[in-house]
Amino acid sequence: MSSYEYLHMIRDINDSTVWWDAKVVVYDKTHPRRASSSPRLYQRITFMDTLGQKVDATIFGDDDIAFFDHAFNLHETYIISNAWVNCISEKCYNRHNYPYQWVVDIDTEFRLEVSDPIPRSLLQHHFTSFSDIHTLIGNEHLHLDILAIVIDRKEPRSVFARGGLNHIKEYVLLDQQHKAVVLTLWNVVAESEGNVIDTCIDTLPIIRATALFVSPYYGGSLGSTMWTTVAVNPQIPEAAALKSWRQNNMLAIAEAVKGKQHFDKISSISDIFVDTKVDEFDVRVTAKITRRNQKGFYMGCGECRSAVSADYNYNYTCNICKKNTTATPHESILLTVTDPSCSLDVIAFGEQAVKFTRVNAVACMEMFDKGLKLTTDEINTTLGKVSFLMKIKKKKREFRNAVEFQYTVVKSEVNTEAAASSSH
Ligand SMILES: [Zn+2]
Fold first, then answer.
1. pLDDT in the model for residue 262
2. Are 321 and 308 in contact (CB under 8 A)?
3. 3-class secondary-structure state, position 347
4. pLDDT tens digits for 284-333?
5. Distance from residue 328's CA to the centre of ligand 1 (Å)
6. Centre of ligand 1 from the C-alpha of residue 322, in Å
7. What is the pLDDT of residue 352?
8. What's the 407 CA to ligand 1 centre distance in angstroms?
9. Average pLDDT for residues 334-358, to the nearest whole number?
10. 336 CA distance to ligand 1 centroid (A)?
11. Contact indicator for 308, 299 with CB cutoff of 8 Å
12. Is the Cβ–Cβ distance between 333 and 289 less than 8 Å?
C-alpha cells in the first residue's frame, strides 16, 4: 500500500506536473459555502503532507460537493492523484507558502489510506485557552484555533462594518476552564458554518473553530475570517476530553447558560456611588467575607422576613406585614466585593447568601447554638477561585437623621466572561 510510483511531496507539485500522487491528511475543511460574488457553491479542504506543507483544495458546484460528501473527513489520510493545479494570488500564497491551489472534481482519483496514515502528532493543533484571549486584543494578524462548547446563541443580525452591510451570527462558547467568550461568524461563514451549529445548538455541541481573529468587543471576543472552518463534534482526542468534561459539569454549564440573559451592561463599582438615576447595577466582581464571626442568619418573620428579636418558632404578629407568624431563621451574609475600580460592602439574603456560604439558615442556627461560627477562611478560599456577575440593588435609608445606603445582592452567577478586568 505504501509504495506509489508517482508519490510527490506537495511542494514538488506545480501546474506542469503531469502525473502525480500525494499522500496527505485532511487538516481542515469548510462546510459548503457560497461566495458573495458568485451563486456557485464551493467547499475548501486544507491538506497537509508529512513535511507539514499545506495546500488548499477546492471542490466547486453542488454535484461535485455531493459526490465527496462522505470523503475527506477531518484527520484522515488520503492518496490523491492528479487533481487540477492552479496558480493563486499572492495573498493566498502567503497562507501556506505554496503558490498553487488544487481543484478536486469527480474525475480526481482519491483513496483512503488506512494502513500507513500520517500520524496525528504531525498535525500540531494548538487550541488557545479562553483565559488568554483578552491578552491578545490588538494583535491584528494573529489567527487562532479554539475547541469549546456552544452554550448559547444570539439573534442573527445585520451590522454596518468594514464599509458595508454584514450578516452576523453570534454564539456564546464555554471552554474547559469555565471561561465564556462570544464568537461572531461573518457573512458566508455565518451562513455555512453557522447553519451547521444552528442545527444542533440545543445539544451543547463541541466545536473546533479555526483561523479566528481576536476582537476587543465584549472585553475580548472572537471573529471569523475567510479561512475560518467550524467542525461540530469533531472526532479528535481533544474533543473527547472536553466531551467528558461537559458530561461531568452539566450543572455548572446550565448555570452559565441561564446567567447569560440577565446581565447586560456591566458597571464598575465606582459607578454605583456616582450614579443617582439608577438603583440596580450589574457588576463583575470578586467576593470575600471580611467581617469575621458572622452567624450567617438572622431571626425574622416567616412571611415577610422582617427581622425580629425572638426565639425560634415563637408565635407573634409581625409589625411590618401585620400577619400572624412564627420566628424563622433566614440566611444573611455580609460580603466585600471588589472590581478594578474599588470595593463595596454588600449584603446577601436567602438563596443569594447560600450561594456564597453554602450553608442554609437552619444549619447556621444549629451551628450557632453549639457555639460554632461560619468557617470564614474556608468560604473565602472557595470564593477566591472565581469571580461573579452580580446585580446589586442600592437602597437609601434614613437612620437617626443620617442618610445611608444599603447594597443588596439580588442576583449573582459565577462569572464566565473572558475578561473579568475589563468593565466596559
Ligand atoms: Zn412580616
1. 54
2. no
3. strand
4. 899 999 998 899 999 999 989 999 999 999 999 999 899 999 999 999 99
5. 11
6. 6
7. 87
8. 21
9. 91
10. 28
11. yes
12. yes
- Domains of the chain, by residue range, sit at 7-122, 130-250, 263-414
Centre of ligand 1 to C-alpha 329, Å, is: 13
Other C-beta atoms lying within 10 Å of the C-beta of residue 126? 7
How many Å lie between the centroid of ligand 1 and the Cα of residue 396?
Answer: 21
| Domain 130-250 class, CATH top level | mainly beta
Amino acid identity of residue 273, one-letter, is F
Let me know if the fold of 130-250 is the same as that of 263-414. Answer: yes
| Cell (9 digits) for 35 | 461566495
DSSP 173: E
> Given the DSSP bridges, would you call strands 21-29 and 41-48 parallel, antiparallel or unpaired?
antiparallel
Q: Which of 365, 358, 346, 348 is nearest to 298 (CA)?
A: 365
Sorting pLDDT into bands at 50, 70 and 90, what band is 263? low
Could you confirm whether domain 263-414 is CATH 3.40.1550.10? no
Predicted pLDDT of residue 92 = 64
Q: In terms of C-beta density within 10 A (0-12 exposed, 13-18 middle, 19 or more buried), how is residue 38 classed?
A: exposed
Distance, CA 400 to ligand 1 centroid (Å)? 23
Reported as a single tens digit per residue, the pLDDT across 86-129 is 998 876 667 888 999 999 999 999 999 999 999 988 887 889 99
Question: Which CATH number among 2.40.50.140, 3.40.50.1980, 1.10.3720.10, 3.40.50.1260 corresponds to the domain 7-122?
Answer: 2.40.50.140
Neighbours of 66 (CB within 10 A): 12
**Is 355 strand, coil or helix?**
helix
